[in-house]
Amino acid sequence: MKVVVDTNVLVSGLVFGGVPGQILTAWTSGAFVFVVSPGILSEYRRVGRELAKGRPALDAALDALLALIAVHATVVDAPPLDVLVSADPDDEQFLAAALAGDAAWIVSGDKHSLAVSGWCGIMVLKPRAFLDGPLASRNR
User: Fold this and answer.
1) 23: pLDDT confidence band, cut at 50, 70 and 90?
2) Could you please report the per-residue DSSP string of 44-93?
3) Radius of gyration of the chain (CA)
4) 32-50: per-residue pLDDT in tens?
């Protein structure tokens, strides 16, 4: 199962744990293939650095997570989409990565991403729905 993880889920998992943290742990345990593009990696880094300002432990954890992703994720070249799909152009890169990486799932809490679930067969799920649905059924 190939999955694109939105920045809000990745950062929330790193900072707060909870359900997003469980999804990251599931990935490190081999439950799914993490699909990412260079642009998404840059966004992870930018947003993570912003939140980690003045928090050295969080900055170190971010570095470690990004290093794991860079080495163990499937990094795809995801050219911009030909058409605007989401109401938020910043969300397009996640759809493009899913399309380029043949990922069936995007995990996101973003309302604009959730609104386009099903586009080109790509399902966008909130973290809890992903954990309790596709991820749980894979682990049964």
Assistant:
1) very high
2) HHHHHHHHHTT-HHHHHHHHHHHHHHHHHSEE---PPPSS--SSSGGGHH
3) 14
4) 999 999 999 999 999 999 9
The answer, yes or no, to whether residue 124 has pLDDT greater than 90, is yes
In terms of Cβ atoms closer than 10 Å to its own Cβ (0-12, 13-18, 19+), residue 100 is middle
Q: Please check whether residue 41 is in contact with residue 63, taking contact to mean a CB–CB distance below 8 angstroms.
A: no
Q: How far apart are CA 80 and CA 83, in angstroms?
A: 9
Dist CA 52 CA 76 (whole Å): 27
Tell me how far apart the alpha carbons of residues 76 and 115 are, in angstroms, rounded to a whole number.
24
Quote the CA–CA distance of 8 and 23 in Å, as a whole number.
Answer: 13
CA dihedral 29, 57, 20, 74 (to 10 degrees): -50
Read off the pLDDT of residues 99-116 as tens digits, 9 standing for 90 and up. 999 999 999 999 999 999
Q: For residue 4, give the H/E element and its range.
A: strand 2-5
Q: Could you tell me the two tokens for 76?
A: 């795809």
Q: Are 115 and 16 in contact (CB under 8 A)?
A: no
